[in-house]
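Internal tracking record. Fields below are filled automatically when a chain is submitted to the structure queue. Please do not edit lines marked as system-generated. If the sequence contains nonstandard residues, flag them in the REMARKS field before resubmitting.
Queue: standard
Priority: normal
Entity type: single polypeptide chain
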Amino acid sequence: MSLLLSMEQKSLGEALKEAILPTDVNFFGIGVNPSFYSALIVTGVILFAALILRIFVIPKFKTVPGKFQAVLEWIVSFFADMAKSNSPHHNRYLGAYIFSAGMYIFFGTMIELIGFPAILVDINASIAIAFFSFGSILIGGAITNGKKGALSALKDFSLPISMTFRLFGNMLSGLLVTELVYHFIALSFVVPIIVGVLFTVLHAIMQTYILTILTSMFYGESTEPHLIKPKKEKKKKSKLASNTQV
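SYSTEM-GENERATED OUTPUT FOLLOWS
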């Protein structure tokens, strides 16, 4: 009994270690994380799907939408409304960015369902998307409010760090939970599959929403117009009062 238990613990440890520190794969002679191939696949599929939709599908949209058109319009309007509600003054770029980032995170997590590792379980991928979001906030603030907007974004210097570790930690915890479910629930193949699918879908939706809502909120703060204070009103009033007395 103790031998079987030790073998089970060893296999669990190896499974978790492989999930956290996977063996590098070859990419033109360079060792990379396996999730790098997931990133290439997801990026290529999203760009190809966007091209097909733009050329063949969108020109055929109708005033009364069908089911596919209604779903597509709902997804786009969801991110557009999020951008408008959190950044009412400047949101055209913000809506496009959070839509793109949201699709990348969502499908970069859902790719687990076909056997590829999630993109954001690699700390480098989490760092990249966090700095892209912070760069968008910083540049948006600098363009709309000049130095004040840039300083407003720079004062939250810990934002890219918190975004990075939030994404990486949440994705890694989800991966470990899934590994534990697959390891311990050996009664049937049905339960692990159902739990794995539901957990992956829920995780993808949650991480997409968290990053996009945080980005839109901080972007709205950095691009909010600053009120110009009237200069030297008190001095003008005192001069007028003195002139009237004279």
